[in-house]
Amino acid sequence: xxxxxxxDVRFSQGDTxxxxxxxxWRRESGIIQLDGQVLVQQPHRWVSAQSxxxxxxxxxxxxxxxxxxxxxxxxxALFSQRARYDRGRDLAVADSAPVVYWDFLLDSAAQTVVHAxxxxxxxxxxxxxxxxxxxVRKGDWVAEGERGTINPDxxxxxxxxxxxxxxxxxxxxxxxxxxxxxxxxVRRVRAIGNASGTYRxxxxxxx
Length: 207
Fold this sequence. Notes:
By secondary structure, this protein is mainly beta. 0% of the residues lie in helices and 68% in strands. The protein contains no helices and 18 strands.
């Protein structure tokens, strides 16, 4: 049985609330397609988009168009044009111009910002992974590589795939770069394998 619903449509299942301007509900298959100002809310997190497909049996959500996900318990925010969320594994994959902000509740200077072709957010492991053209910005440092893993609990970002990190005073390269965060900035950057770099003493600037 298929139902077409219009005007401030709302569904609830457990601790999940869904709403949109229009919906197609396929009752037997448990699939709900929502369009227009779509919002899915759970305790301490929510996702909005232009359209969304919710599969109850597969426990997945596919969001398309101006996707915005926030998780206040992990201070994590994701923006993308497309994202899929696996509720069973608590895993989100965004693969259309994704941008991630860790510590988004703080001011912009304290945030860790990640750009990549694809971003994978593992909520259970509290870990983010960027794949393809990854850029990580933290404080005065910018790191680039083909792959990057962010571990906020460990205050670490690990970059691979010809990574380069540039900050005040210099540039460092290696097979692997490990960025160690401290508070609002980067405390140290370590290069592992084929390490090279340049250094400029910024204390002499303007003297």
